[in-house]
Design brief:
By secondary structure, this protein is mostly helical. The protein has one domain. 43% of the residues lie in helices and 8% in strands. The strands form two sheets. A three-stranded mixed β-sheet has the order 1-3-2. Strands 4-5 form a two-stranded antiparallel sheet.
Length: 264
């Protein structure tokens, strides 16, 4: 566990009384998201009771739930190609992109813009699934992570990786059809993209520190392996994802606009 230091954030110079606002954390976060990136509220619900049918990581990652959901998604994507063999790896790669593509931005915004740290433990995150099987919305039980209030931006993101993202990746990869490396490679681009979205909200040195730690440091703060290391690399004068996400292998699914494979 990294040493706790006082965080440098937009409210750090205000008296403590303002940091101890009587507004609930859920209300503060909802206001923050609405002000900065209101579209995120379409797929993340803060402090609202999770509706029936939503599942926590401990639930959706069980073999019965996971295989049912990913098979439903596969049947949907291959619906017009009954004679084509369904491939689990690219299918689950795309499923994981739905999961982290929807979840990661609001968590990053909350952790990097709100003085009180949101507790991102998996048991507080409920996933809603589309009728086609892929994740479509997240319902967050909003609790403050008091141990993280005075952590730096980098320490907060490191905590997010270890406490929230690693268990979710393991929950997907444990079934054997997709490896964790591919999921992290996809997630690296999500991190890089949303850091770009935050460039007008965070100090430049904070963005640079996070990019350096996420993509160029072999280890996390506790010395363990950094799963995002070199998921984004300098190439052709800019930062690009290291490898292909495999989605192109699914019929009628277009390549990413930044696909690493040469055009055919």
């Amino acid at each position: 566990m990294p040493t706790i230091t006082r965080q440098d954030h937009r409210f750090s110079e205000q008296p403590l009384i303002f940091m101890q606002s009587d507004r609930s954390l859920a209300s503060a976060l909802e206001d923050l998201v609405r002000e900065q990136r209101s579209y995120l509220l379409e797929s993340v619900k803060l402090g609202q009771p999770a509706p029936p049918g939503t599942l926590t990581l401990a639930e959706w990652s069980t073999p019965s739930h996971y295989h049912r959901l990913t098979q439903r998604y596969s049947d949907y994507l291959y619906r017009d190609h009954p004679g084509v063999q369904q491939e689990a790896k690219p299918l689950q790669s795309l499923w994981a992109q739905w999961y982290f593509g929807l979840l990661l931005p609001p968590l990053m915004l909350a952790l990097l813009q709100e003085p009180r740290a949101l507790d991102c433990s998996p048991q507080h995150i409920h996933v809603q699934f589309h009728e086609n099987g892929h994740p479509c919305a997240f319902w967050l039980d909003v609790h403050e992570d008091e141990d993280a209030r005075y952590l730096s931006p980098l320490q907060r993101i490191d905590r997010l990786i270890q406490q929230c993202l690693m268990p979710a990746v393991d929950g997907m990869a444990q079934h054997g059809d997709i490896n964790a490396k591919l999921i992290w490679n996809n997630m690296g681009f999500s991190f890089y993209w949303f850091l770009g979205e935050l460039k007008n909200l965070l100090p430049e040195n904070t963005i640079l520190q996070l990019e350096q730690a996420l993509f160029f440091s072999k280890s996390l703060l506790d010395g363990s392996d950094n799963p995002l290391y070199r998921t984004m690399i300098p190439r052709n004068g800019e930062m690009e994802r290291r490898s292909c996400c495999q989605r192109y292998r699914i019929p009628d699914v277009e390549r990413c606009s930044n696909c690493t494979l040469k055009a055919v």
